[in-house]
Design goal:
Blueprint: H1 10-22, H2 24-30, H3 34-63
Length: 64
């Protein structure tokens, strides 16, 4: 009695490979790293701080 082997066709191999590769991608892409969130918030905070200081320095002569 021969051992039954799984048929290794090209299409099923490619489909299983695509299926295995496609499953972790959305979860990996959707979950953001905490360091990325911190970096984004830090850049936004610095941008608002700099623009606020520039606006205050720009308005200063009119306040005298």
């Amino acid at each position: 009695m021969k051992p039954t082997r799984k048929p290794q066709g090209r299409t099923s191999d490619v489909q299983s490979n695509m299926y295995e590769r496609a499953i972790p991608a959305p979860a990996n892409e959707a979950s953001a790293d905490p360091s990325e969130i911190f970096c984004f918030v830090f850049i936004l905070f610095n941008f608002q701080l700099i623009t606020g200081l520039a606006w205050i320095l720009h308005i200063m002569p009119a306040l005298r």
